[in-house]
Each structure stands twice: as C-alpha cells, then as structure tokens.
Amino acid sequence: MKRVFLLLFAGTVLLSCDVGSKRTEAPKITAKPEKELFQVPDTSTLKDDEWGRQVKYGRRLVQNTAYYLGPDGIVSKNLGNKMNCTNCHLNSGTKPYGLNFFNSHKTYPQYRAREDAILTMSDRVNNCVERPHNGKPLKLDSREMNAIVSYIKWVGENYDTAKHVGYSLKYVKYHGLSADPKRGEAVYTTHCKSCHQEDGQGQLNGDKTMYTYPPLWGPKSYQEGSSMHRVLKAASFIKYNMPDKKASLESPVLTDQEALDVAAFINDGSIHPRPNPTHHDYPNTQTKPIDYFKGPYIDGFSEEQHAFGPWDEIEKYYVDKGLKVNK
Ligand code: HEC
Ligand code: HEC
C-alpha cells in the first residue's frame, strides 16, 4: 500500500562547518517552499452539464449512502448496514487526514495486497461496499458506481503531491508502543461514549435512514478485516479526527497511546464481535499488513501481537528480510 509521509513544515538546515576545518561562516538556512494543505473546490464551481450532474450525484451518494443504497435504500439495497461513506471518509472525503480522496483517483489502478492483484478505482470502491458496509458489490457499469468514481476523481483533480499535503491519514507514532484494550475502555468512557453510546451501537437519525453517530462494533458496524478494523489504521483515524470531527492534525485531543488503546478496545473481537465473513484476504503472506488480526503470517509472531503490538519486532523482521513493511 502506498503511504505518503510528508513533513508539513519542511525546512532544510545546511550547516557548512566541516569538522576540523577553520571555517567559521554562520550556518546557511535554506527553507524549502512549504507544502499547502489541499483545498477541495466548491461544488458550486461545477457546471450543470453531464459531468457536473454526475459528480454531484456521486457526492450525494457518499453523503447519504444508506438512504440510496442501504438495507432500505431507494435506489438499490447493496449495503448490509446503514453507515454512509462520509462516516469514515469525513466531510465527503474532503477533510485533511480524515480518510479523504485527495490522491485516490490518480493512484489507481494499483497493486492491492488484500487481493494480491491490481485493482481499479471501482474495485476499490466495492471493497468498501463489501467490507465496512457489509454489502454486495455495486455493478461496475451502474450509474451509482460511475457517479461515485467521478466524484472521487473531481475531489482530487488539482491535488499535486509536489505542492500539497493532507492526503488520507497521518499515522500515529507506534514505535515503542503497544495497544491495550483494557486501558482503551477508560478512554472510551471519557471521550467516546457520549456520542457512540455505551453499547457502541451509535444512534440513528430521526427517520432512521442513517446514523447521527455511527456504530463502532456489533452486527451493524464494519466487518472484521475492514481497514478500520486494523488497530494502527483506526488509531491514526481516531487521533486526528475524534472525539468529534473537530480534532485535527493541529489540534488532536488524544495522545498516540490513547488512540492506540481505544482503537484496540473497539476492535478487540473477544469483547466486541462484528460481522465476520469468510473472505480469503491476503493470499500472499509476504505483503500482509503488520497489524492484520489473523494469520497465517510469514513471521513467527502471534495474532495477538499483530493485532495489538508491539509492532517493532514484527517490522524489523520484514526489514531484515528486505521486504516492504505493509501497514
Ligand atoms: C461529539 C460526538 C462524537 C464523539 C465524542 C466521538 N465521535 Fe466518533 N464519530 C462521530 C460522528 C458524527 C462520526 C461520523 C462522522 C460523519 O458522518 O460526519 C464519527 C465517526 C467515527 C468513526 C468512523 C465511523 C465508524 O462508526 O466506524 C470512528 C472509528 C469513531 N468515530 C471513533 C470514535 C472514538 C474512538 C471516539 C472517542 C475517542 C469518538 N469517535 C468520539 C461523533 C463522535
Ligand atoms: C467504516 C469506515 C469506512 C466506510 C463506511 C467506508 N470506508 Fe472507504 N475506506 C476506509 C478505510 C479505513 C480505508 C483505507 C484507507 C487507507 O488504506 O489508508 C478506505 C479506503 C477507501 C478507498 C481507497 C482510497 C485511497 O486513496 O486509497 C476508497 C476509494 C473508498 N474507501 C471508498 C469508499 C466509499 C465509496 C464508501 C461508501 C460506499 C466507503 N469507502 C465507506 C473506511 C471506510
């Protein structure tokens, strides 16, 4: 999986003092141009033509997915739950480090470890329809799939990795740390329960078509093996986006440790079951993510350690073997 690690304030300090030389010039400081946080254009800039209408329909589908495609959907009943894409891809996939679509369209087709195959953008959309939404794939040539993919393309049209930052997620620092579901329970009580509820089932809206507060576990939540079910990924989402969408890169509320612990609490299958399909994911164990909860693995580490860390030794195993660390 491609990961983009970018420094928000990239600055280079060039020190021109050779050890042992007599040069005494002051250090030269050359600042690289700062990359900007990407701004998605307003939908009002879209024309009322075929493309504009398609993008706008795609945006409505991402925002009100369950209303259109949910178990009681007015267009189809592909989804197995009432979550919306925007519950995770915040602000319809436009929030910096909030699982946005800034660079998604330009990076597909790409190799995906889960299938050990090259997937198109539409295939990847269907991954989320099947796993977090516990549903049946959309027809690849359907009006809905075309609209969603058009919307994702539009969101990232002006995103340029040479100029912009903010794509996808910012990873928590997990080196030296592991995640403890027990400690996570305390974090949940303090920071999450008020919205997602004591039983983690969230709260439906007034007409019960979708969620005001989406569920975090149980039969109506995302499946085991979804990306959000992985502790490192979930912690990275949570740290910079929760509690409440007001948390951000500049103003996180939780520490890395708290984010890891609460992600472990939510995703611990022994206390919080969730839909458990029988996909045959990651057929190539060499490219399996280090935080995937289920074996087989090529390394000798337990499922418990893969799920909750510490991940340092696991990571070292792959590095020593000259393999890519997938996460
Ligand atoms: C003030 C209310 C509020 C609090 C407190 C809150 N959340 Fe959320 N959370 C939301 C809303 C609303 C969404 C969906 C965002 C949207 O649709 O725009 C969400 C989405 C999520 C999601 C992705 C969707 C899902 O259901 O899987 C996760 C994971 C999550 N929250 C975890 C947490 C954790 C962990 C905490 C505590 C650290 C927390 N939230 C605290 C309101 C809240
Ligand atoms: C429970 C949370 C959740 C829901 C709901 C969800 N997704 Fe996702 N989605 C994720 C996570 C987590 C990833 C993985 C991102 C990563 O690998 O960094 C992802 C990845 C994607 C990607 C690939 C993005 C990229 O740049 O690589 C696309 C496209 C996508 N989702 C579309 C959708 C669509 C469309 C919907 C609604 C039909 C949806 N998702 C619903 C959590 C969710």
Summarize the structure.
With 327 residues, the protein is mostly helical. Helix content is 31%, strand content 6%.
Per CATH, the class of the largest domain reads: Mainly Alpha
Secondary structural class:
mainly alpha
The N- and C-terminal alpha carbons lie at a distance of 7 Å
Strand order of the biggest β-sheet: 1-2
CATH homologous superfamily classification of the largest domain: Cytochrome c-like domain
Plain-language structure description:
- With 327 residues, the chain is mainly α.
- The protein folds into 2 domains: 43-165, Cytochrome c-like domain (Cytochrome Bc1 Complex, Chain D, domain 2), CATH 1.10.760; 170-327, Cytochrome Bc1 Complex, Chain D, domain 2 (Orthogonal Bundle), CATH 1.10.760.
- The chain is built from 11 helices and 8 strands.
- It has helices spanning 50-63, 65-69, 90-93, 121-130, 143-156, 181-191, 193-196, 231-241, 256-267, 303-308, 312-320; strands at 12-14, 28-30, 36-37, 110-112, 117-119, 164-165, 203-204, 211-213.
- Strands 1-2 form a two-stranded antiparallel ribbon.
- Helix 1 (50-63) packs across helix 5.
- Residues 1-22 have low confidence and may be disordered.
- One heme C binds at residues 86-88, 90, 191-192, 194-196, 213-216, 222, 228, 234, 237-238, 242-245, 254, 262.
Quickly list its features.
Cytochrome Bc1 Complex, Chain D, domain 2, single chain, two-stranded parallel ribbon, mainly alpha, disordered N terminus, 327 residues, two-stranded antiparallel ribbon
